[in-house]
Amino acid sequence: MKLIAASLALILFSQFSLSALAGLFRMTERQEIMVGAQAATQVEKTQPILRDKTVTDYVSKLGRKLVVHSYRADIPYRFRVVNSKQVNAFALPGGFIYINRGLIEESETENELVGVIAHEIGHVAGRHGVTQVARAQKANLALGVSRLLLGRVRGGSTIFNGARLVTQGTFLKFSRDHERDADRRGAYMMHAAGWNAEGMVSFFDKLSKSGSSRAAAFLSTHPSPSERRDNVSDLIALWHGDGRINSQEFKNIKARLRKIN
């Protein structure tokens, strides 16, 4: 019976057209938001979220000003600050953005912080997380079929679990094309919202030169400063360095963080 079942599975899989297979992994916007929300729930069980309304409202305000110019402002973005000294930031599908307090503390000017937020929004606007989840699901499907053929599938195994794939780190593994696209989208958002887009590059320049151990993981999952500059140098040159660099509110937030354990 196992041999018959395996043979039948192989026939069915081989007869699956590419267009039908693609349809399995086509995630609607509603599904994307649901996956992001489920992943966010899991993230917030393991990550210490900063429960300071003033800091959270400030980061959210920056994000909302950028989202207006993202060409994807019709989804419910949500911004959270992680109470960790490590320099990090990431975006989940559906508009869930996380910024570590360590990243805010390492930013010397507001436009450096905004550059990171804009880059993460760029990933959401480009639906890069959706693409990564689809790739992981395809890999899981192939693995599931091979296990079926070998008789190793156990009851309750799940192939399509987008939220699990996201929380396992899929959202951190963007391709170079995705990173380039997020940079360019982010730079445009910064400029359109009134900030100097040079901050997107200067922040990574400073981090790489500092040799900070707190930033090592963050730098390893994002483009190098030289690559990032190549990604947006033509846009920055076009805008002649125009735009806001710093604000008193940013300085106030950094001072507030120094008082929070």
Supply Rg. Answer: 21 Å
- Largest sheet strand order: 1-3-2
The gross shape turns out to be globular
Beta fraction: 5-15%
| SSE order | HHHHEEEHHHHHHHHH
* Alpha carbon gap, first and last residue: 62 Å
- Our count of domains comes out at 1
User: What share of residues is helical?
Assistant: 55-70%
Largest sheet: 3 strands, mixed
**What is the number of helices?**
13
- The overall pLDDT, averaged over residues, is 81
| DSSP, total strands | 3
Low-pLDDT runs of 5+ residues are: 1-23, 142-160
Given the helix and strand composition, which structural class is it?
mainly alpha
Q: What is the strand and helix layout of this fold?
A:
Elements: H1 2-15, H2 18-24, H3 29-46, H4 53-67, E1 78-82, E2 89-92, E3 96-100, H5 101-106, H6 110-125, H7 128-149, H8 162-167, H9 176-192, H10 199-210, H11 216-220, H12 225-239, H13 248-258
Parallel strand pairs: 1-3
Antiparallel strand pairs: 2-3
Helix pairs in contact: 4-6, 6-9, 6-10, 9-12, 10-12
